[in-house]
UniProtKB/TrEMBL annotation:
Residues 163-307 form the Thiamine pyrophosphate enzyme TPP-binding domain. Pfam families: TPP_enzyme_C (PF02775), TPP_enzyme_M (PF00205). Keywords: Thiamine pyrophosphate. This is Thiamine pyrophosphate-dependent enzyme. Gene3D superfamilies: 3.40.50.970, TPP-binding domain (3.40.50.1220). InterPro entries: DHS-like_NAD/FAD-binding_dom, POXB-like, THDP-binding, Thiamin_PyroP_enz_cen_dom, TPP-bd_CS, TPP_enzyme_TPP-bd. Belongs to the TPP enzyme family. Residues 2-101 form the Thiamine pyrophosphate enzyme central domain.
Length: 320
């Protein structure tokens, strides 16, 4: 993928679970797709006249263009044209088709220096903005700082199960992926997904770090499965982004002048609950504390819940 992008000097935009398939620090990487992605990706997509979709099916209407010609490559015929019209659909294995595309690009090289410069400028400005967002620390910590802490500590080959909530968007906006495998509930957006997913991942890959990242509202849906992790001796670490509310819903209500009834939460002490189940409980109120607690928890290789106190900040472009 990297070689193909460099060959045609294209901007690269990834879907949520594909973040680690392309170097996030590459000058042509423009971030994720949709509200959870980047302003740079939306701008560059809107300026493009041809978009090559490799194995992706998610096409959020408000963040993707309608004017560009789209060529889609996928091994499943049923995935062709989901959410958008196609200029051309190619059914096949990317492992065979991408090398062929490289051959075609090499046979007809184009001078795209101006576009390459535009991509680098947009992506560079975006990454500078993220550094500013994620650099500020406080207590409770900004969600951007919390995600940056995760990005700096989690191993490159870890498996990360991300629950559903406003932290899902913050994660895709801020997290700098390396080779991690990212699991989400992509179709049903299920609350409580992260913990059981992390348990399953740890059973399948006992040698790898398996981390569950969940909001307080999603955590309580399946929280007693932590007892299962303790019984099985699984060294998963669950980070609870605790902001005392269903922040996505509350912020939408507030922004629209609605009553926030039902959006606020009265939470248990997640660290003490972990201890009551026979695991380890930790707390963090700042990004620096979260980095320390997460590093120690991962090194201990025991089931652990980290209760991370996070501010209920509004995700950009939030609307009802």
């Amino acid at each position: 993928m990297k070689q193909l992008a460099e060959s045609v000097q294209a901007a690269v935009v990834t879907t949520y679970t594909a973040r680690s398939l392309f170097p996030n620090d590459h000058p042509q990487y423009a971030g994720g797709l949709g509200q959870a992605g980047s302003e740079a990706s939306s701008a560059l997509l809107a300026e493009s006249d041809l978009i090559l979709v490799l194995g992706g099916t998610w096409w959020p209407d408000e963040y993707t263009p309608t004017q560009a010609r789209i060529v889609q490559v996928d091994r499943s015929p049923g995935h062709m044209g989901i959410g958008h019209e196609l200029e051309l659909g190619v059914v096949g294995d990317l492992a065979q088709i991408v090398p062929r595309l490289l051959e075609l690009a090499a046979a007809k090289p184009l001078d795209r220096a101006a576009w390459k410069q535009r991509v680098a400028e947009a992506a560079g400005a975006w990454k500078a903005k993220l550094e500013q967002e994620a650099g500020a620390d406080a207590s409770p910590m900004p969600p951007q700082r919390a995600i940056r802490a995760l990005s700096q500590v989690i191993a490159p080959d870890a498996i990360i199960a991300v629950d559903t909530g406003d932290h899902t968007l913050w994660f895709n906006r801020i997290f700098q992926a390396r080779s991690q495998e990212i699991l989400i509930s992509g179709t049903w957006r299920t609350l409580g997904f992260a913990l059981p997913a992390a348990i399953a991942a740890q059973l399948e890959h006992p040698e790898r770090q398996c981390i569950a990242i969940a909001g307080d509202g999603g955590s309580v849906q399946t929280l007693m499965e932590f007892q299962t992790a303790v019984q099985l001796g699984l060294p998963i670490v669950m980070v609870v982004m605790n902001n005392g509310c269903y922040a996505m819903e509350k912020n939408r209500m507030t922004g629209s002048g609605l009553q926030t009834l039902g959006s606020e939460l009265v939470n248990p002490d997640f660290a003490m609950l972990a201890q009551a189940c026979g695991g380890t409980g930790r707390k963090a109120c700042t990004g620096a504390e979260l980095e320390k607690q997460l590093s120690e928890a991962l090194a201990a290789r025991k089931p652990c819940i980290i209760d991370a106190s996070v501010a209920p900040a509004v995700v950009p472009h939030t609307k009802i």
